Amino acid sequence: MAVPERNHNLLILFLVLLVNDALCIRFPDRVARPALDSPDQHRLRVAVFALGSFWRSEAVFGCLPGVVRTTVGYAGGSKSNPEYRSLVDHAECVKVEYDPELISFRELLDAFWSSHDPRQVYGQGPDVGNQYRSIIFVNGTEESRMASVSKEQEQTRSRSSIVTTQILQLGTFYTAEPEHQKFELKQNNILLQLIGNLPAEELERSSLATKLNGYVAELCPPNIQKRIDSKINDIIKKGWPILRDL
Ligand SMILES: *[C@@H]1O[C@H](CO)[C@@H](O)[C@H](O)[C@H]1NC(C)=O
């Protein structure tokens, strides 16, 4: 049976991807570092939120236009150097680095409220425990005021149950262990391969990985989710460069 060349290439692409663990192909840095990774770093701001499992929290913010980078970690408690297995009084958090000219703290707050149930006590969804509590970390009085106003608005939406979200001044943010960073993206070997199998430290800093992490969890805004879908389909349709002769 004649296999059209294009489908043939596609087949080979999938075979290559299937054995990617064994081959461990590395792309040149040119491919691994998109332009997005080097915007004017100086104007970036930082916001930290706790809204349940940080695997999901990271994906919630990663795809929002203006968010440059996300990192998961621990904050809100007093234990120094917490670890995943011994958080004590810390909460699982996501640190969001964003460009305030493209997205505001207020818009990040909107995403925060619409992405979890702040009325749930001692947990979030199926995750039970103090580490999954809801917290807005603020830096200074202006952010503190905005957080309080948005919490009051959230409370007026439901009179029967209390919005449990805490508002805390940001203290130390402890970056979580590498295996928890971009957790959603790490479930998708094909996408990891497409961005060049970045080593852990690069993956943690990569804006591209930040977006794809949201995409894999299907938490991007619908128009962005669609745009990424079509881009990835384009790449797959074009097939893979194949060495046929020497
Ligand atoms: C808090 O805000 C100040 C002033 O905008 C800034 O210099 C500082 O880096 C911020 N701290 C954090 C942890 O983002």
From TrEMBL:
Residues 47-189 form the Peptide methionine sulphoxide reductase MsrA domain. GO terms for molecular function: peptide-methionine (S)-S-oxide reductase activity. The keyword Glycosyltransferase does not apply. The keyword S-adenosyl-L-methionine does not apply. GO terms for cellular component: cytoplasm. It catalyses: [thioredoxin]-disulfide + L-methionine + H2O = L-methionine (S)-S-oxide + [thioredoxin]-dithiol; L-methionyl-[protein] + [thioredoxin]-disulfide + H2O = L-methionyl-(S)-S-oxide-[protein] + [thioredoxin]-dithiol. Its EC number is 1.8.4.11. Keywords: Oxidoreductase, Signal. InterPro entries: Met_Sox_Rdtase_MsrA_dom, Met_Sox_Rdtase_MsrA_sf, MsrA_MetSO_reductase. One of its GO terms (biological process) is cellular response to oxidative stress. Residues 1-24 form the signal peptide. Catalyzes the reduction of methionine sulfoxide (MetSO) to methionine in proteins. Plays a protective role against oxidative stress by restoring activity to proteins that have been inactivated by methionine oxidation. MSRA family specifically reduces the MetSO S-enantiomer. Belongs to the MsrA Met sulfoxide reductase family. This is Peptide methionine sulfoxide reductase A5. The lineage of its organism: Eukaryota, Viridiplantae, Streptophyta, Embryophyta, Tracheophyta.
